[in-house]
Amino acid sequence: QQQGVSKTEITIGTIQDLSGPLAGYGKAVRNGMLLRIDEANEQGGVNGRKLKLITEDSGYDPKRAVLAAQKLVNQDKIFIMAGHIGTAQNNAAMPVQFEKKVVNFLPVTAAREMYEPLSKFKYALFATYFDQMRAAVPALVKEKKSSKVCAIYQDDEFGLEVLRGAEAGLKAINMDFAEKTSYKRGATDFSSQVARMKSAGCEMVVLGTIIRETVGTIAEARKTGFNPVFIGSSAAYTDLIHKLGGKAMDGMYATMTVPHPYLDEASNPIRFWANKYKTKFNEDPTVFSVYGYVILDTFIQAAQKTGPNLTSDSFIATMDKLTVPSDIFGSPEGKFTPTQHLGSNKSRLSQIQDGKWKIVSDYYKLD
Amino acid sequence: MQELQVIFSGVAQGCIYGLIALGFVLIYKATETVSFAQGELMMLGAFCGLACVNWLGLPFWLAIPSSMLAMAIMGWLIERAVIRPVLGQPAFSIVMLTIGIGYVARGLITMIPDIGTETHTLQVPYKDTSFDLGGVVIGATQVVVVTATALLSLVLYVVFRYSRVGIAMQASSQNQLAAYYMGIPVQKLNGLVWALAAAVAAIAGLLLAPITFVHANMGFIGLKAFPAAVVGGFGSLPGAIVGGVIIGVVEALSGFWLPEGFKDIAAYIVVLLMLVLKPNGLFGENLRKKV
Amino acid sequence: MRFIFKTDYDQDIRLAKHGGHVFWYSLLLAFLVAAPWLIEEYWLAQLTFVLIYSVVGLGLMLLAGFTGLFSIGHAAFLGVGAYTEAVLAARGWPFPVSLAMAAGLSAAVGAVVGLPALRVKGIYLGIATLSFGFIVEEGLARWESVTGGNAGMHVKGIQMFGWEANTSESFYMVCLVVTVLSTLAVLNLLRSSTGRAFVAIRDSEISAQSMGIHLARYKTLSFMISAALAGMGGALYAHKLQFISPDQFNILQSVDLLLMVVIGGLGSIHGAFLGAIFLITMPQLISLGKDYLPAAIGQAPGLQAVVYGAVLIAFVMFEPMGLYGRWLKVRTWFQLFPFYRKGMFKRQKSFQKSDRLK
Amino acid sequence: MTTDGIVLKLSNVESAYGPIKAIRGVSLQVKQGEIATVLGSNGAGKTTILKTISGIIDPRKGSIEFKGEDITARDPSLIVQRGLMHVPEGREVFPLLSIRDNLLMGAYTRQDRDGVARDMEAVFNYFPILRERSAQDAGLLSGGQQQMLAISRALMANPDLILLDEPSLGLSPKLTKEIFEIVVRINRERGTTILLVEQNANMALNASDYGYVLENGRIVMEDTCANLREKEDIKEFYLGMKEEGVRADRRWKKKKNWR
Amino acid sequence: MMNDILLSAQNLSVRFGGVLAVNNVSFDVQRGEVFTLIGPNGAGKTTVFNLISRIYTPTSGQILYDGQVLTDVPPHAVANLGIARTFQNIELFEHATVLQNLLIGRHTHRKTSLWSEMFFTAKTRAAEIEAREKVEQVIELLDLQHHRESMVAGLPYGVRKVVELARALCTEPKLLLLDEPSSGLNVEETEDMAFWISDIKNVLGITVLMVEHDMTLVSKVSDRVLAMAQGMELATGTPAQVQSDPGVIEAYLGTVDDVSSLRRENAKESA
Ligand SMILES: Nc1ncnc2c1ncn2[C@@H]1O[C@H](COP(=O)(O)OP(=O)(O)OP(=O)(O)O)[C@@H](O)[C@H]1O
Ligand SMILES: Nc1ncnc2c1ncn2[C@@H]1O[C@H](COP(=O)(O)OP(=O)(O)OP(=O)(O)O)[C@@H](O)[C@H]1O
Ligand SMILES: [Mg+2]
Ligand SMILES: [Mg+2]
């Protein structure tokens, strides 16, 4: 008897940050997932089984993530863990899941550990920070003809991944950073870091930053008359940047995989989707809502394909030859194989123009 | 030149630490408890300001007194509801209470749909103004922070040093029993102190808002204010400011000069050095018991 | 009421004061030993966490509850223990040896932290330990060659002399043994002269000194023992979580540890255990309970923090003596049963006295 | 003032510390303008009575009236405002406040600045050392000096009734006499009523009008001081007067016979 | 016997800011005697005690104890040399029982190591029982049986004074410093205290240095008395000599007539 799958129901677990520093994201991911589940259930579920989502709160704390995973896996008997947020949290929770053959399905973190080293139970969908920066930074350097590239990054695994990706990209074009400077998560003052980059004469700054730090850094730079090209990762690709930072943010670049769903989006299906979300949750959707939605969409596709006999093993067998076509959001096509558990390593570049993200490049090709 | 710029930014940042530290010292001086909720009160204050400006449409200059008032009432209510019933218990119980208050405040704000989990900007009139003093750029936000901090600490210093109520607050913290014997309305004063501390927190929140934005976790900056208060000497109001500025400047300079990572722990290294050299801080009282 | 007629000084020294003690504690131990066969896996995992935190709690209780030194950076010791264990286990050291190393290294770090404690007290000590906690956390993050930095590191299972504790049952047993042994050691210490010296320092430094107690030595010792226990807890924690990263040992963890001993009841060994039970089950209870609430509240982000904070507040307000204090009252109530008088446990007005002069 | 001239009246007051009853049904009265004293051995409950009166302990039973008003279990600050001041056992000064600030705190409930200044001058005259050290932290004073400060602080409130708990504790013989002189003088000049608890029974009985004897939390005897001084038991157990040679080498104690 | 000096203070002075608390004071305490310091409040008596127990360091002068210079000894080691003290304001371990307080007094006689305590070896057990036996002797001597298990925090003032004396005795000192042992005790209890002090001297053979304001007690038990005022020596000698010294009467004892006169006049007036 497969745990989490009954005649009528499939139980999906997810761990989000609902009370910690990323509570905003966690909530959006969950809502995105719920939206897709409701759609699926309205259409009769997956092979006749309704989907049920159980959310746990980790508060962005790895220990609580383990406790939550234990509860979900051993108490609630989930079939799959989908869209778990946070790198350290995933790393901490995965052993608990794997003991019971619970797949860690498309976590919301672009760290390489989410599919490396290869494991039967690990699947990730979107390009990692590493790949994003590796592709985008050299391209932008060429375009802008920058000779001095610097980096400011959050002193944790996330920031380091961005840094390493950019470093790898620069190496490919025989460059290195002119200056690297870091800050601790939660920092609010970036004056000394900016001063440092300014005195190094940077022309381009790679931002291993999330939201407030991105805004803080750019604002501080603009204030002191320091105007290099700024490029961030998909972690900085959120509407909050221009909402919080205002005019000063114009011109900033960020890599991205799925677009932000503006309510007045030109593309018809996205606008329709965004308004549906807004009606349901009385909240504007964010790019994280899209992640949540896409993650569950992918799960539903895979579960559908697996057929009525849904077990961990049969699900993995399906996953290992699954191709996910591009969707309404224009996300890149995903392809899984028994040796490649990352769906896609493609990303593109977006820039803030007149207080809104505009996509400015095609998907970069990476070998 | 760059250094000067860095130092000034450090001073401004330090004043923010000092401002929060002022709240700690205030409560410590008057009740001998260390309030771990001060950062959260500041966060609530910032949200108050946000409510006033963004949702009620008040002008910023009116939002300041209104949030101070609102927060003062809030502080008083908190005291009334949870602190007063345990007044007289060992100070440590109350420290625990403040941790609980911090959790609840953060959680409640997060629970507000659509608002709590977001980051907001507080529109302040002076936000984009800055002065260029021959290469050193000074933001108006920083000038306002420095000025407000200096004024506030001066006022509080005078109140504690010379006013009857101020002295009575100190008396109650040193020997609560004797304060009762003297007819000092310890409970009322306690309420007053919390109201005052919350109002100070509101100011800190409003001044900080343009710099760090308003969000549920902005109170964590309070952790940097502890070292500030300790360096200055925990019982001393001017000490809080001086300590804050020291920490701010050391932090800024070590971020500029020293290898990666030092900026983030500079504050704590300063504290440890301070405690070794001068255990009671720069302006702390000499705390030796006479037997 | 139970009256015990004492005929021998040994009766005061003995750990179990009467037959009741012997009976109940044997029963408890029997249950704990049989637990893997009695309770579900999920609850066994919780129980394991409780044991791990109890070990840490014992240490902190010794420091805060019995020596009166509050540490707001205790997670640092947990971290040192966890990383030591992780590194040594990866090199294939047998568990007892690596555990001893984890304890020893933590104790060494504890001795260093103890140094400021010699000169400062109260809030100053709190901030000193807090600062130290930050520095250790940063150190763990920066020493990438050994700790793997912020990426964290995976921890191998327990192995010793050819035996591996690779099931949750066997790991639970290991934790139980460590817990029982640490508890006995702490109890023994507390009923002998070192323990009394700790209590003396807590109550009056000046008079402890005049009784010939070397303040510096005993404060450092208290820090070391406390750190060693935290280090052992950390070692078990590392194996339990199988993945450690520096931010697991941050200020929030330290505050949790402190809450644990306070809620348990400062100054009692029972308190360390009750506090650990509380700390582990509380979030679980919240997440079990929230499904029964209306979705608008139950699923709202931040609920957990609110409930956690509210429970904490309620505790301090209604039971400042902690869970153990409550237990004592309940027990007295039963012992006195028909003669219980109203107001017997009514809280007296009490008055805070400055800790600044001690 | 009430017509019958009774300032303080305790009826059947019972107080306890947790399960331990410290006083069991104490009734006593203090008349306007008199000095009353409570004698009793260690742990008899004298301090507890005073604490109960000034609202530091809530009694389990009974009631306390001050100037005709029921003040049972009221807030201590309110009781002080009504004109009752307590000089506690063990000094209880504010250790980190200067002596002057300590005295000012004594006058916290008063509004008349001139009166406060006058009283400050008066206590400085009683105890010149306090004037000399007025800027020093009170915690650094010697034990006896702190006791002077504690008494002065109470005088600063210019109360109607002073509760004095062992005022002579730690004072030199000379100062002990001076203190009692001051007490009597204040009683006479200002009409302040005084309830005195004192181990130095000789002094206490000489200075007071009316006395109560407390044993094990119960009042076992009450009378005018003149009468009390004549009682054998009082003589033996409280005044230490006994035939020479009887006690000197006797190592056991004669039991008090009123228990 | 004459030259058997246990403690010798030589030209001790200590200054706190503007206050010269002790000013060039010298005295010798003979082995086996009861030596009393008297003097008005603030004379510096407690400060002398604090100098001996090394809480303060003298500004000038030195203290010799048993031929050793005490001023170099760290404060916690003073007890190991056999000096125990009580405090004027009572410094007990409030949140412990009387028994535990007294056991802490046995600390200087600790023989067990940390490890043997952790495993509670037979040696530790034996040491515990031995400590307990010693403590029981002191309890017996000072009549504290009733209070053995009471929390100190709840004891009346007078009992605490006795507990503090007991705790000092548990260290089995050679020199006992008593700071106002009788304050807060009534006549009867003061008499007991007098008996105990004589017992301590005569039976236990402990030298006593005492500060006391109760002249009855002082005359009863002291061999020699030193009167101080404003940090300086005023007079030394037998109790009787010192009590009749005009300087001492002037500064400390006051004139003989007592308050009762005041009171009776008053009564007459109102009558
Ligand atoms: N805080 C307390 N907790 C428990 N019991 C107490 C407390 N304070 C006093 N007691 C008990 O109450 C009784 C009366 O104490 P109280 O202090 O009133 O005595 P007293 O007459 O003032 O004695 P003394 O002359 O020593 O000051 C004593 O038996 C004492 O043990
Ligand atoms: N640490 C200190 N700082 C400043 N002044 C002090 C200190 N210790 C003592 N003094 C002062 O020194 C003087 C002597 O104090 P000490 O305590 O020795 O007096 P004492 O003789 O014991 O008096 P009492 O009989 O009142 O206890 C006092 O005037 C006191 O104020
Ligand atoms: Mg008393
Ligand atoms: Mg003295």
From TrEMBL, chain B:
TM helices/strands, residue ranges: 6-28, 40-56, 91-113, 133-160, 192-213, 225-253, 265-283
GO molecular function, one term: transmembrane transporter activity
Superkingdom to which the source organism belongs: Bacteria
Major localisation: membrane
Keyword list, A-Z: Amino-acid transport, Cell membrane, Membrane, Transmembrane, Transmembrane helix, Transport
Membrane topology value: Multi-pass membrane protein
CDD domains reported for this sequence: TM_PBP1_LivH_like
Location relative to the cell: Cell membrane
Gene Ontology CC entries for this record: plasma membrane
Keyword set includes Membrane: yes
Pfam family, one: BPD_transp_2
BP-aspect Gene Ontology terms: amino acid transport
Membership in a protein family: Belongs to the binding-protein-dependent transport system permease family. LivHM subfamily.
Official protein name in the record: Branched-chain amino acid ABC transporter permease
Species lineage: Bacteria, Pseudomonadati, Pseudomonadota, Betaproteobacteria, Burkholderiales
TrEMBL record, chain C:
Keywords of this entry: Cell membrane, Membrane, Transmembrane, Transmembrane helix
Main location group: membrane
Localization annotation: Cell membrane
Membrane topology: Multi-pass membrane protein
Record-annotated membrane-spanning stretches: 22-39, 51-73, 93-115, 122-143, 170-190, 220-238, 258-280, 292-318
Pfam short name (any one): BPD_transp_2
GO cellular component, one term: plasma membrane
Xref: InterPro entries: ABC_transp_permease, LivM-like
PANTHER family recorded: HIGH-AFFINITY BRANCHED-CHAIN AMINO ACID TRANSPORT SYSTEM PERMEASE (PTHR30482), HIGH-AFFINITY BRANCHED-CHAIN AMINO ACID TRANSPORT SYSTEM PERMEASE PROTEIN LIVM (PTHR30482:SF20)
Protein name, UniProt field: Branched-chain amino acid ABC transporter permease
Native organism taxonomy: Bacteria, Pseudomonadati, Pseudomonadota, Betaproteobacteria, Burkholderiales
UniProtKB/TrEMBL annotation, chain D:
CDD domains per record: ABC_TM1139_LivF_branched
A molecular-function term among this protein's GO annotations: branched-chain amino acid transmembrane transporter activity
GO BP terms, alphabetized: L-amino acid transport
Keywords: Amino-acid transport, ATP-binding, Cell membrane, Membrane, Nucleotide-binding, Transport
SMART domains with a match to the protein in the record: AAA
Residue span(s) of domain ABC transporter: 8-241
Keyword ATP-binding on entry: yes
Keyword Hydrolase applies: no
UniProt xrefs under InterPro entries: AAA+_ATPase, ABC_branched_ATPase_LivF/BraG, ABC_transporter-like_ATP-bd, ABC_transporter-like_CS, BCAA_Transport_ATP-bd_LivF, P-loop_NTPase
Name of one Pfam family that matches: ABC_tran
UniProt family annotation: Belongs to the ABC transporter superfamily.
The protein's name: ABC transporter ATP-binding protein
Lineage, uppermost ranks: Bacteria, Pseudomonadati, Pseudomonadota, Betaproteobacteria, Burkholderiales
From TrEMBL, chain E:
Coiled-coil regions listed: none
GO cellular component, one term: plasma membrane
Pfam families per the UniProt record, alphabetical: ABC_tran, BCA_ABC_TP_C
SUPFAM superfamilies in alphabetical order: P-loop containing nucleoside triphosphate hydrolases (SSF52540)
Keywords: ATP-binding, Cell membrane, Membrane, Nucleotide-binding, Transport
GO molecular function: ATP binding; ATP hydrolysis activity
Residue ranges constituting the ABC transporter domain according to the UniProt record: 7-255
InterPro entries (alphabetical): AAA+_ATPase, ABC_AA/LPS_Transport, ABC_transporter-like_ATP-bd, BCA_ABC_TP_C, P-loop_NTPase
Name of the protein this chain belongs to: ABC transporter ATP-binding protein
Biological source species: Limnohabitans radicicola
